Amino acid sequence: MDRPSPRRSSAVVATAVGLLLVSALPALGQERTLTLMTHDSFYLPAAVIENFEAAHEVDVRLLPAGDAGAMVNQAILTADRPLADVLYGIDNAFLSRALEADLFEPWQSAALEFVPAELQLDPEHRVTPIDYADVCLNLDREAFADGALTVPTSLEDLADPALAGQLVVENPATSSPGLAFLLATIAHFGEDPETGWTAFWTDLRDNDVTVTSGWQEAYYGSFSGGTGEGDRPIVVSYASSPAAEVIYGSDPTSDESPTLAIEAGCFRQIEFAGILRGTDEPELAGALIDHLLGVEVQAELPLAMFVYPARSEVALPGVFEQHALVPTAPLSLDPATIDAGREAWIREWTDIVLR
Question: Fewer Cβ atoms within 10 Å of its own Cβ: the N or the C terminal residue of the chain?
Answer without folding.
Answer: C
